[in-house]
User: Fold this.
Amino acid sequence: MRTDTRFGERVRACGPNPARRSPTIESLFPPGVAAAELRTGGDPTLLEPEEASAVARAVPKRAREFAAGRLCARKALESFGITGFAVRAAPDRQPLWPDPVVGSITHTTGFCAAVIAERARFASLGIDTEMAEAVKTELWPSICVPAELGWIEALPPAERARAATLIFSAKEAFYKCQYPRTGEWLSFSDLRIVPLEWGAAHGVFALEAQSPMALFAAPQAAARLLTAYRFHEEFVSAGVALCVDPAPG
Assistant:
Protein backbone atom coordinates (compact mmCIF):
# COMPACT_ATOMS: atom_id res chain seq x y z
CA MET A 1 0.00 0.00 0.00
CA ARG A 2 1.45 3.37 -1.08
CA THR A 3 1.17 6.57 0.89
CA ASP A 4 1.72 10.13 -0.27
CA THR A 5 2.42 13.07 2.03
CA ARG A 6 2.29 15.91 -0.51
CA PHE A 7 0.78 19.16 0.81
CA GLY A 8 0.63 17.76 4.34
CA GLU A 9 -1.90 15.03 3.59
CA ARG A 10 -1.28 11.36 4.30
CA VAL A 11 -3.61 9.17 2.24
CA ARG A 12 -3.90 5.57 1.17
CA ALA A 13 -3.75 4.44 -2.45
CA CYS A 14 -7.13 4.01 -4.18
CA GLY A 15 -8.36 1.64 -6.88
CA PRO A 16 -8.45 2.71 -10.53
CA ASN A 17 -10.05 6.09 -11.09
CA PRO A 18 -12.82 5.82 -13.74
CA ALA A 19 -12.94 9.59 -14.39
CA ARG A 20 -11.56 10.80 -17.71
CA ARG A 21 -10.28 14.07 -19.16
CA SER A 22 -13.13 16.22 -20.52
CA PRO A 23 -12.34 18.27 -23.65
CA THR A 24 -16.00 19.39 -23.67
CA ILE A 25 -15.75 21.06 -20.27
CA GLU A 26 -12.24 22.37 -20.96
CA SER A 27 -13.65 24.18 -24.02
CA LEU A 28 -15.57 26.46 -21.63
CA PHE A 29 -12.36 27.87 -20.18
CA PRO A 30 -9.13 29.48 -21.35
CA PRO A 31 -6.02 27.35 -21.90
CA GLY A 32 -4.50 26.22 -18.64
CA VAL A 33 -7.72 24.84 -17.13
CA ALA A 34 -7.91 21.04 -16.81
CA ALA A 35 -11.23 19.21 -16.62
CA ALA A 36 -12.32 15.63 -15.94
CA GLU A 37 -15.74 14.00 -16.18
CA LEU A 38 -17.57 10.89 -15.09
CA ARG A 39 -20.80 9.62 -16.62
CA THR A 40 -21.79 7.24 -13.82
CA GLY A 41 -22.22 7.58 -10.07
CA GLY A 42 -18.99 7.50 -8.14
CA ASP A 43 -18.01 4.54 -6.02
CA PRO A 44 -17.88 5.69 -2.36
CA THR A 45 -15.42 2.90 -1.57
CA LEU A 46 -12.85 4.82 -3.65
CA LEU A 47 -13.05 7.84 -1.34
CA GLU A 48 -10.16 8.59 0.97
CA PRO A 49 -11.02 8.47 4.69
CA GLU A 50 -10.79 12.26 4.96
CA GLU A 51 -13.27 12.57 2.10
CA ALA A 52 -15.62 9.80 3.20
CA SER A 53 -16.25 11.46 6.56
CA ALA A 54 -18.20 14.20 4.76
CA VAL A 55 -20.85 11.71 3.60
CA ALA A 56 -20.68 9.17 6.41
CA ARG A 57 -24.38 9.68 7.17
CA ALA A 58 -25.53 10.63 3.67
CA VAL A 59 -28.09 8.71 1.65
CA PRO A 60 -26.55 6.51 -1.08
CA LYS A 61 -27.44 8.92 -3.90
CA ARG A 62 -25.63 11.81 -2.21
CA ALA A 63 -22.63 9.59 -1.40
CA ARG A 64 -22.35 8.53 -5.07
CA GLU A 65 -22.57 12.15 -6.27
CA PHE A 66 -19.92 13.23 -3.78
CA ALA A 67 -17.65 10.35 -4.77
CA ALA A 68 -18.03 11.17 -8.47
CA GLY A 69 -17.01 14.75 -7.82
CA ARG A 70 -13.92 13.72 -5.86
CA LEU A 71 -12.87 11.21 -8.52
CA CYS A 72 -13.18 13.89 -11.21
CA ALA A 73 -11.25 16.31 -9.03
CA ARG A 74 -8.41 13.84 -8.52
CA LYS A 75 -8.19 13.12 -12.25
CA ALA A 76 -8.02 16.85 -13.05
CA LEU A 77 -5.41 17.41 -10.33
CA GLU A 78 -3.18 14.86 -12.05
CA SER A 79 -2.77 17.33 -14.92
CA PHE A 80 -0.76 19.49 -12.50
CA GLY A 81 1.24 16.63 -11.06
CA ILE A 82 -0.81 16.49 -7.87
CA THR A 83 -1.59 12.93 -6.79
CA GLY A 84 -2.57 11.32 -3.54
CA PHE A 85 -4.47 14.38 -2.31
CA ALA A 86 -7.71 13.94 -0.34
CA VAL A 87 -10.16 16.68 -1.37
CA ARG A 88 -11.87 17.30 1.95
CA ALA A 89 -15.00 19.42 2.46
CA ALA A 90 -15.01 22.66 4.43
CA PRO A 91 -17.80 23.33 6.96
CA ASP A 92 -19.69 25.19 4.22
CA ARG A 93 -19.22 22.12 1.94
CA GLN A 94 -16.75 23.87 -0.37
CA PRO A 95 -13.94 21.60 -1.64
CA LEU A 96 -10.59 22.24 0.03
CA TRP A 97 -8.06 22.34 -2.82
CA PRO A 98 -4.28 22.08 -2.60
CA ASP A 99 -2.71 25.52 -2.15
CA PRO A 100 -1.29 25.78 -5.71
CA VAL A 101 -4.68 25.41 -7.44
CA VAL A 102 -8.30 26.55 -7.59
CA GLY A 103 -11.20 24.41 -8.75
CA SER A 104 -14.92 23.73 -9.03
CA ILE A 105 -17.17 20.66 -9.20
CA THR A 106 -20.60 20.02 -10.72
CA HIS A 107 -22.89 17.02 -10.91
CA THR A 108 -26.30 16.32 -12.38
CA THR A 109 -28.14 13.22 -13.51
CA GLY A 110 -25.70 11.17 -15.61
CA PHE A 111 -22.84 13.68 -15.58
CA CYS A 112 -20.20 14.93 -13.16
CA ALA A 113 -17.19 17.14 -13.83
CA ALA A 114 -14.41 19.03 -12.09
CA VAL A 115 -12.18 21.85 -13.31
CA ILE A 116 -8.76 22.78 -11.91
CA ALA A 117 -6.29 25.59 -12.68
CA GLU A 118 -3.16 27.11 -11.22
CA ARG A 119 -3.84 29.79 -8.61
CA ALA A 120 -1.06 31.89 -10.12
CA ARG A 121 -3.14 32.28 -13.29
CA PHE A 122 -6.76 32.06 -12.13
CA ALA A 123 -8.24 33.54 -8.97
CA SER A 124 -11.31 31.30 -9.08
CA LEU A 125 -13.37 28.98 -11.32
CA GLY A 126 -17.04 28.03 -11.51
CA ILE A 127 -18.60 25.14 -13.44
CA ASP A 128 -22.20 23.99 -13.61
CA THR A 129 -23.96 21.34 -15.73
CA GLU A 130 -27.71 20.70 -15.93
CA MET A 131 -30.05 18.58 -17.99
CA ALA A 132 -30.74 20.92 -20.92
CA GLU A 133 -34.48 21.35 -20.30
CA ALA A 134 -34.52 20.81 -16.53
CA VAL A 135 -35.90 24.23 -15.54
CA LYS A 136 -39.66 24.12 -16.02
CA THR A 137 -42.01 27.05 -16.56
CA GLU A 138 -43.20 27.29 -12.96
CA LEU A 139 -39.62 27.92 -11.79
CA TRP A 140 -38.79 30.74 -14.17
CA PRO A 141 -40.09 33.61 -11.97
CA SER A 142 -37.95 32.47 -9.03
CA ILE A 143 -34.79 32.14 -11.15
CA CYS A 144 -35.07 34.97 -13.67
CA VAL A 145 -35.14 38.74 -13.33
CA PRO A 146 -37.79 40.57 -15.45
CA ALA A 147 -35.41 41.23 -18.35
CA GLU A 148 -34.50 37.53 -18.53
CA LEU A 149 -38.17 36.54 -18.44
CA GLY A 150 -38.90 38.95 -21.27
CA TRP A 151 -36.11 37.45 -23.36
CA ILE A 152 -37.28 33.88 -22.73
CA GLU A 153 -40.90 34.66 -23.54
CA ALA A 154 -39.88 36.28 -26.83
CA LEU A 155 -38.22 33.06 -27.98
CA PRO A 156 -40.04 30.31 -29.90
CA PRO A 157 -41.80 28.00 -27.38
CA ALA A 158 -39.53 25.06 -28.23
CA GLU A 159 -36.45 27.04 -27.13
CA ARG A 160 -37.70 28.47 -23.84
CA ALA A 161 -36.90 25.63 -21.43
CA ARG A 162 -33.35 25.40 -22.79
CA ALA A 163 -32.91 29.16 -22.45
CA ALA A 164 -34.18 29.15 -18.86
CA THR A 165 -31.89 26.27 -17.98
CA LEU A 166 -28.90 28.09 -19.48
CA ILE A 167 -29.69 31.11 -17.29
CA PHE A 168 -29.91 28.87 -14.22
CA SER A 169 -26.65 27.10 -15.06
CA ALA A 170 -24.79 30.35 -15.75
CA LYS A 171 -25.91 31.82 -12.42
CA GLU A 172 -24.81 28.68 -10.59
CA ALA A 173 -21.41 28.78 -12.29
CA PHE A 174 -20.95 32.44 -11.37
CA TYR A 175 -21.94 31.76 -7.77
CA LYS A 176 -19.38 28.95 -7.53
CA CYS A 177 -16.73 31.27 -8.97
CA GLN A 178 -17.42 34.23 -6.70
CA TYR A 179 -18.12 32.48 -3.39
CA PRO A 180 -14.55 31.30 -2.62
CA ARG A 181 -13.37 34.88 -3.18
CA THR A 182 -16.09 36.76 -1.29
CA GLY A 183 -17.94 34.32 0.97
CA GLU A 184 -21.07 36.12 -0.23
CA TRP A 185 -24.42 34.33 -0.53
CA LEU A 186 -26.38 35.48 -3.58
CA SER A 187 -29.93 35.08 -4.79
CA PHE A 188 -30.98 34.51 -8.38
CA SER A 189 -32.31 38.08 -8.52
CA ASP A 190 -28.84 39.52 -7.84
CA LEU A 191 -27.58 38.73 -11.34
CA ARG A 192 -28.76 39.01 -14.94
CA ILE A 193 -27.46 36.65 -17.62
CA VAL A 194 -27.36 37.86 -21.23
CA PRO A 195 -26.53 35.07 -23.71
CA LEU A 196 -24.64 36.77 -26.52
CA GLU A 197 -24.77 34.01 -29.11
CA TRP A 198 -28.14 32.36 -28.61
CA GLY A 199 -28.90 29.82 -31.32
CA ALA A 200 -25.38 28.43 -31.38
CA ALA A 201 -24.48 25.30 -29.43
CA HIS A 202 -21.50 27.09 -27.91
CA GLY A 203 -21.25 30.73 -26.93
CA VAL A 204 -20.55 33.29 -24.23
CA PHE A 205 -22.76 35.30 -21.91
CA ALA A 206 -22.59 38.66 -20.19
CA LEU A 207 -22.98 39.07 -16.43
CA GLU A 208 -24.88 42.10 -15.15
CA ALA A 209 -25.09 42.71 -11.40
CA GLN A 210 -28.60 43.64 -10.26
CA SER A 211 -27.50 44.51 -6.71
CA PRO A 212 -24.20 45.45 -5.04
CA MET A 213 -21.79 42.50 -5.16
CA ALA A 214 -18.43 42.14 -3.45
CA LEU A 215 -16.79 40.64 -6.52
CA PHE A 216 -17.88 43.42 -8.85
CA ALA A 217 -16.74 46.00 -6.31
CA ALA A 218 -13.18 44.71 -6.59
CA PRO A 219 -10.97 46.75 -8.94
CA GLN A 220 -11.17 45.55 -12.56
CA ALA A 221 -13.12 42.41 -11.54
CA ALA A 222 -15.41 42.56 -14.57
CA ALA A 223 -12.41 42.81 -16.88
CA ARG A 224 -11.02 39.61 -15.40
CA LEU A 225 -14.14 37.47 -15.87
CA LEU A 226 -14.44 35.03 -18.78
CA THR A 227 -17.66 33.13 -19.49
CA ALA A 228 -18.85 30.41 -21.85
CA TYR A 229 -21.67 27.90 -22.28
CA ARG A 230 -22.14 24.77 -24.35
CA PHE A 231 -25.11 22.54 -25.14
CA HIS A 232 -23.79 18.99 -25.45
CA GLU A 233 -25.81 15.79 -25.77
CA GLU A 234 -28.73 16.22 -23.33
CA PHE A 235 -26.85 18.72 -21.13
CA VAL A 236 -26.00 22.39 -20.91
CA SER A 237 -22.81 23.47 -19.15
CA ALA A 238 -21.66 26.94 -18.13
CA GLY A 239 -18.21 28.05 -17.04
CA VAL A 240 -16.93 31.21 -15.38
CA ALA A 241 -13.26 31.98 -14.82
CA LEU A 242 -11.82 34.86 -12.82
CA CYS A 243 -8.37 35.54 -14.22
CA VAL A 244 -5.55 36.93 -12.11
CA ASP A 245 -4.76 39.47 -14.86
CA PRO A 246 -7.29 41.25 -17.11
CA ALA A 247 -8.88 38.82 -19.55
CA PRO A 248 -7.51 39.02 -23.10
CA GLY A 249 -9.62 41.11 -25.44
